[in-house]
C-alpha cells in the first residue's frame, strides 16, 4: 500500500475536460468587504451560495450540446465516502457516465489489482480497468513498487493539490521505489483519514475501580491481562510496543533509538502477548461487543461506529500520539496492458479524474465527516481545526465520550501522530530479529500475528 510510465489522456482531452469541468467546480475563497457573520450563519450562507452556483452551472451546461459522453469509473472501499457524493455527481446530466463501484475491504481491492499484474491480463470489470480506485496509504509504497498504480500526471498544477497541506504533500510524493521523495511524483489523493484509537467499557472500569485509559502504557496494566482485543496489523502491534517505550512507529534502528534497545522491545512485546486475549482484525470488535474483553484497539473507522451502537463506552486517541491512516484515490496502471478488452483505458484514465479529486476535496464535502455521518475526517483538516457543525436541536444523539472533536484528535495529540512509512532495510532486520526470538505458539491467535509479521518481512516492507 509501484511505478509505470505517465498516462496519456483520452482522445480529444481538452474538449472532454472543458465540456465537463463545470461538473466539478474547484473550491475557491470568497472575498467579503463586510465583517464576517457568525459561524452558523456563515455556514448557512456558504451552503446557499454553493447551491446557487451549482444550479447556475448546471443550467449553463445543459444549454450546450455535446456529442461526447465522458466516462468516469471509480472503484472504492464500501462506506468510505458519503452516498450523497454519488447523488450530486449523477444529478449533473447525461454527458457524464459516472460508474461508482464498491469493494468490501482495502485488502480485497488490493488483491484484485495484484492478480491482474500477476496474471498479466485485465478484464473490463476489474478494478485495474477503473479510472480511480481506493487504496490505503500504508499500502502505497508496495503498490508503486509492484506496478499496480501510476503517477498522477500534472498533479502539482491542480487546485486540489494546492489545497493540501505540506504534511500531505510530503506523504504522497514518492520515488519509483515507493519511498518518500520530495523530488518524486504524486501517487495518491487523500479523501479521508483517521487514527488508531483505544476503546474501553466505562461500566467495567467503574465496577472494578479502574483508572480510565489514557495512553499506550495502560495496555500493560496487570489488571487488564486477558481483557484486551486488538487488530492483528503487524505495524500497529509492534507500533504500540514502540510507543509504550517512548519511541516512534517509524523507528529505523531499535538498538539505538529505543531506550533499552532491541531487548526492551522484545520484553515489551512478550508482555503484550499476555495482555491481549485476541489479535484479530476481523473479530476484535465482536469480542469487545459481547463483553469477552473490556478494552479494544483498532482503526477509528471501525471503532467509532461500533462504539456509538453500544452504551458506556469511551474512545480515546492515546495522549502520546497514535498512527494515522488515510484512504487515497489512486490511478490503476492499466496502461501496462496490451489489450483491446478495456477500450481507451489502456491509453490513460478519464480526463475527469482531476475534477473528481477537486470535488472530493471541496470544503462542502467535509460536512458529512464533521457531522459524523461517515467516520473519519476531511484531508483539509489534518493541520487545521474542523469547523463546528450547526446541530439540529430536534435530534438528540447519545454523546460518545471521546477526546476526538468532529473526528479529529486534539491538536496537542495530533502533532504527535504519525503516518506509517515503509520499513527501511534496517527496520526489517530488527523485525526479523524480533521474530527469531519470540516463542511461537502452535497456531492460535498470536500465531496469526506472527505469521502476518513474517509475511510482511517476506514482502520487504509492504506496509
From TrEMBL:
Q: Which InterPro entries match?
A: SBP, Sperm_putr-bd
Q: Where in the cell is it found?
A: Periplasm
A single Pfam family it belongs to is SBP_bac_8
Superkingdom is Eukaryota
State the signal peptide span: 1-31
Sorted UniProt keywords: Periplasm, Signal, Transport
GO biological processes: polyamine transport
Its main localization is: periplasm
A GO MF annotation of the entry reads: polyamine binding
Q: Which PANTHER family match?
A: SPERMIDINE/PUTRESCINE-BINDING PERIPLASMIC PROTEIN, SPERMIDINE_PUTRESCINE-BINDING PERIPLASMIC PROTEIN
Q: What is this protein called?
A: Uncharacterized protein
Source organism of this protein record: Triticum turgidum subsp. durum
Amino acid at each position: 500500500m509501484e511505478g509505470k510510465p505517465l498516462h496519456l489522456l483520452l482522445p480529444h482531452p481538452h474538449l472532454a475536460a472543458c465540456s465537463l469541468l463545470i461538473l466539478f467546480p474547484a473550491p475557491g475563497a470568497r472575498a467579503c468587504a463586510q465583517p464576517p457573520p457568525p459561524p452558523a450563519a456563515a455556514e448557512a450562507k456558504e451552503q446557499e451560495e454553493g447551491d446557487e452556483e451549482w444550479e447556475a452551472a448546471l443550467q449553463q451546461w445543459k444549454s450546450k450540446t455535446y456529442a461526447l459522453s465522458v466516462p468516469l469509473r471509480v472503484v472504492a472501499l464500501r462506506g468510505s465516502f458519503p452516498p450523497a457524493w454519488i447523488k450530486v455527481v449523477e444529478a449533473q446530466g447525461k454527458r457524464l457516465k459516472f460508474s461508482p463501484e464498491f469493494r468490501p475491504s482495502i485488502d480485497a481491492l488490493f488483491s484484485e489489482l495484484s492478480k491482474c499484474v500477476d496474471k498479466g491480463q485485465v478484464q473490463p470489470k476489474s478494478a485495474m480497468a477503473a479510472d480511480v480506485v481506493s487504496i490505503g496509504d500504508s499500502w502505497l509504497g508496495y503498490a508503486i513498487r509492484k506496478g499496480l498504480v501510476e503517477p498522477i500526471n500534472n498533479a502539482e498544477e491542480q487546485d486540489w493539490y494546492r489545497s493540501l497541506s505540506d504534511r500531505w504533500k510530503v506523504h504522497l510524493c514518492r520515488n519509483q521505489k515507493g519511498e518518500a521523495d520530495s523530488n518524486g511524483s504524486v501517487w495518491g489523493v487523500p479523501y479521508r483519514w483517521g487514527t488508531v484509537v483505544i476503546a474501553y467499557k466505562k461500566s467495567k472500569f467503574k465496577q472494578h475501580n479502574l483508572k480510565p485509559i489514557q495512553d499506550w502504557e495502560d495496555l500493560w496494566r496487570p489488571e487488564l491481562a486477558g481483557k484486551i482485543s486488538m487488530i492483528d496489523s503487524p505495524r500497529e502491534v509492534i507500533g504500540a510496543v514502540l510507543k509504550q517505550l517512548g519511541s516512534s512507529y517509524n523507528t529505523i534502528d531499535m538498538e539505538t533509538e529505543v531506550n533499552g534497545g532491541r531487548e526492551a522491545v522484545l520484553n515489551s512485546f512478550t508482555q503484550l502477548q499476555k495482555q491481549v486475549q485476541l489479535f484479530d482484525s476481523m473479530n476484535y470488535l465482536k469480542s469487545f461487543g459481547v463483553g469477552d474483553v473490556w478494552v479494544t484497539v483498532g482503526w477509528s473507522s471501525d471503532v467509532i461506529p461500533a462504539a456509538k451502537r453500544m452504551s458506556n463506552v469511551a474512545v480515546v486517541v492515546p495522549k502520546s500520539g497514535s498512527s494515522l491512516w488515510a484512504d487515497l484515490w489512486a490511478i490503476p496502471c492499466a496502461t501496462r496492458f496490451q489489450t483491446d478488452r478495456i477500450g481507451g483505458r489502456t491509453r490513460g484514465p478519464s480526463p475527469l479524474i482531476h475534477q473528481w479529486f477537486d470535488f472530493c476535496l471541496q470544503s462542502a464535502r467535509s460536512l458529512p465527516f464533521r457531522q459524523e455521518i461517515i467516520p473519519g475526517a476531511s484531508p483539509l483538516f489534518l493541520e487545521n481545526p474542523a469547523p463546528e457543525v450547526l446541530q439540529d436541536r430536534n435530534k438528540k444523539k447519545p454523546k460518545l465520550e471521546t477526546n476526538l472533536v468532529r473526528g479529529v484528535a486534539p491538536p496537542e495529540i495530533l502533532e504527535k501522530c504519525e503516518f506509517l512509512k515503509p520499513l527501511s532495510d534496517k527496520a526489517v532486520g530488527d523485525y526479523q530479529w524480533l521474530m527469531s526470538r519470540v516463542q511461537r505458539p502452535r497456531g492460535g491467535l498470536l500465531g496469526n500475528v506472527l505469521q502476518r509479521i513474517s509475511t510482511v518481512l517476506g514482502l520487504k516492507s509492504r506496509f
